[in-house]
Design a protein that fits this description.
about 250 residues; alpha/beta; Rossmann fold; nine-stranded mixed sheet; two-stranded antiparallel ribbon; 6 helices
């Protein structure tokens, strides 16, 4: 099987390693079937799409909506690399699944409005399928509403109305209108984190406690919030994506 690639941007080793382990767990892939590239550490290598099965993008510390002058040199490099990659991915309708930071990269590429209007605190939220989304192969058979882990400072306020490629809204939550969308037939992004379990999001809460997602005195409340409801369906999206697009 041609491998999948996970493009990651977390500089902290523990959450970065745990993210990779969780992607392996929920996709059902083996380490040789999911190659990790840590973009915060080095430039993106050349990715020949005919040599891989698909691309995953994990979450990370970058915000697409930050003013350019406030972005680090690493963030600006990573964004330029994603722009070039997505030019090719979208043109070929190549299998792509971006989670959290991945929705910012794909949304930016497609001309979506991204700002801090619909940020969500770290928590569990109900995500509801959009009209017609139940026919999507990644969502078919899932409940119309399911719980998901979220925690983001920015989000898509509106998807582009039109363009060269069809953009389809797939899911929303009460506080965030775009929780999942698709470009063409094979390019996906979610605002929520399908790769997380309670232990994984707990690691991130501690790792990013001073990154502005919550006030210092809110730590215990935040830890309680991610245990407020069970999250059982979202990992299925990653498993289905890997099974659907694995190729020899």
């Amino acid at each position: 099987m041609k491998p999948f690639v996970l493009l990651a941007t977390r500089a902290e080793d523990r959450p970065a390693d745990e993210e990779y382990a969780l992607f392996l767990r929920f996709t059902g892939l083996q380490p040789h079937e999911l190659l990790r590239v840590r973009l915060e550490a080095a430039p993106m290598p050349e990715l020949r799409l005919d040599e891989i099965s698909g691309i995953f993008v994990g979450g990370g510390p970058f915000n697409a909506s930050d003013p350019t002058e406030k972005k680090s040199p690493v963030q600006r490099r990573v964004e330029a690399e994603f722009t070039a990659l997505l030019d090719e991915v979208v043109a070929q309708d190549f299998p792509f699944f971006g989670a959290c930071y991945g929705i910012g990269t794909l949304g930016t590429h497609q001309g979506a409005t991204i700002d801090r209007t619909y940020s969500e605190p770290i928590s569990v939220v109900p995500v509801s399928l959009a009209e017609g989304a139940a026919s999507d192969p990644l969502l078919n058979g899932l409940p119309d509403t399911f719980n998901a882990f979220v925690g983001h400072k920015e989000a898509i306020s509106s998807l582009p109305a039109g363009g060269l490629h069809t953009v389809t809204l797939l899911a929303s939550s009460p506080r965030c209108p775009v929780q999942m969308f698709r470009v063409g037939e094979n390019v996906y992004a979610t605002q929520f984190h399908p790769e997380l379990d309670v232990e994984g999001i707990t690691t991130r809460i501690h790792a990013y406690a001073d990154h502005g997602y919550f006030a210092p005195h809110e730590l215990e409340d935040t830890l309680a919030a991610v245990r407020s409801a069970p999250v059982t369906e979202t990992g299925e999206l990653l498993r289905r994506f890997a099974q659907r697009y694995a190729r020899d």
